[in-house]
Amino acid sequence: MMYNYVTQAIFLLLEVLHVLAQEGEWTKWSQWSGCSVTCGYGVQKRQKTWQPRVTGSGVEEPFKYEDIIECITNVPCPRDGVWGYWGAWSECTKMCDGGTTKRMRECNSPSPENGGKDCEGKEFAETTCNDWKCPELPPNFDMSQCNETTYMCLDSRQCVPTPRRCDNQLHCHDGSDEHNCAYYWPNKASRICASELMRWLLALTLVKILRQLVS
For the whole prediction, is pTM greater than 0.70? Predict the structure, then answer.
C-alpha cells in the first residue's frame, strides 16, 4: 500500500516539474468547495490551473492542481441499531403436556442514534417445550401417605417417594418432580437430572479408587 502511494507521488511530482518547465502561469486559487458530507468528517477542495503560453509547437493542455483538506460538520451522523446476542431461554411455562419458552435480545450493539433506524425483526423468539405427556393423577389419591419422606407435587394433590424426585422420569401428574433438577432445556433429549449426574460422578469416583487399590 505504501509503495502505491510513493509511486503516485513520484509520478505527480514529475508531471508538475514537466508543467513548470513550460512557459505559462498559474491562475488564482478557486474558492474552497463545501464539505463533501452533511454529517461527520469529509473533505474540502480548491483548484488552480497552470495556463501555458502559446509556443511554436502550439498550445499545451492546461494543468489543474488540487488542494484537499479535511472538514468536520459538527453534525453527528445517524447510526442504525444492530441486534445484540440472544439471551438464555426462559423456563418452560409447563413441565409436561407442552408449554412455551422465550428468549430475548436487545437493539443495543449499537443502539440507534441521531435518527438512525431501529433494528428490524422481533426482540423475542418463542418455541414449544416439554411436549411429553403428563402422568395421570391417581384416582382418589390418599394424601395421608404424604409425610417428610415424600415429595409433595406442586399443586398439592399428590406426593411421590422422595427417591423418585429427579430420577429423569415423571411421577407427579403435573411433572413437578422433575422441575429444577439441574439443567432445564426446551427439549426432553437435553434434560439432565441432578440425581442422575450424581450417580455418574459417584461411579467414576469409585472406579478411580478401585484402580488405585489394584495398582
Answer: no
